[in-house]
Amino acid sequence: MKRIMVLLAAAVVLLAIPLSSLARNLTEAYPMDQTSAPEQTSKPHEFYSAAESAAPPETAQNVTLDASSLSLYAGDYVELRVTTENGGDWEPFVQGDSALCEKTGSPEDPRLRVTALSAGDAYVGVSIDGAVKTIPVQVMASPVHIDTASLSTQAGEIYGFVVQTDGTEPQLSVDSIAYVKQVEKTGLPENSWYYEITALAPGQARVCAQAGEYRAAFPVSIAESDILRKAQEYDSPTSWLVLADLSAQKTVVFRGQKGNWRIERAMNCSSGAPDTPTPTGIYHVQSRGSWFFNKSLGEGAQWYVGFWGDYLFHSFPMDSSRKVTDYRLGQPLSHGCIRLRTDEAKWLYDNLPYHTTVVIY
What we know:
mainly beta; L,D-transpeptidase catalytic domain-like; 5 helices
């Protein structure tokens, strides 16, 4: 009987512990150094318990990263500086399927690019001399999706990509060595937007799409191009220069001066068909107008800039009611003029000064 009474007393003591206190101890949140996303209401303790259950190898003592932890939305990325003693070589390290690690930067400024793939937890870091230096990463779900993970291109090139959200129109941002513009495009999925990025100068750029607190991004690596090098050979009476590459069906506008031309805008175009080719050579801007119509051809166009006689840059071809009759670009189709997208022909009409040198090759 005495033994039974002792057991009952112990049970009473246990029941007296407040359940709220017990729950608080079980759900106490660990602090996290959030470097890439707003504070979240998720449960960090679940992330750390998952991470601790698969502890990483021995910690490297001769390497440092410029973050102690990361919190990213799926589709976003960050680049961390990596510092090693005596400049030792290292390799990317990742534990878990929610993130991807890549070695980027230069030998003088090595970086670790961490890309968030899907919601979940991971360790990321570097491996050096058989040991690793890691930090925890929490990847959170996001409604912002970009159909491009990364891009390697050349100055003057144009690349299209799609951003999809939960219905909120995204805001696009990019570093100054590239230009991003929304372009109307049919056949897109619901809540999707189409953009074109134009590479302006060699270097590294980040393209970011943000909708509310959510974001996704992709890195762009831009190399020097033949058309940028070729432009440096030419002079112009104005601070503008135009090169039209007929083989690439591309028109590129530069600003600056001989030997120091910088790309201002690049545009896909359509030059003369094989039977009515666009003349090659060096010309100068000599005319402009908002509309013309050729009765014999039954065709006209808006926003023309003339460079030699009747040869023009102009919009998509149109009928007499100014309805576009052919939206195609990227192949030789015209009667000798250089066709551009209508909004880009308007930009050329608005910006290109008289007497500007035009090189067609």
